[in-house]
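Minutes, project check-in
Item: structure for the 77-residue chain
Input as provided by the requester:
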Amino acid sequence: MATFTSTLPDNLLKQLAEKAKSLSVPKNKLIENALRLYLEHLEKAEYSKSYRQAATDKDLLTLAEEGMEDYLNQLER
């Protein structure tokens, strides 16, 4: 495990200390969990954005529709 050093605004550091104390969790674990959740959130947002972009891509929609037609034809056989 690597060591990371950073600075935080005083009010945020105070909130971190208070929440860590109330949860009986070390501050570094609280930061680790929060960062992990935030990075997952960013990844999901990126994934969602790619689907929204795909929904407006006419070539991709045509390809998907053709694929579904082929799939339905296979099911009927």
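Outcome recorded: Residues 24-76 form one domain.
No further action items on this chain.
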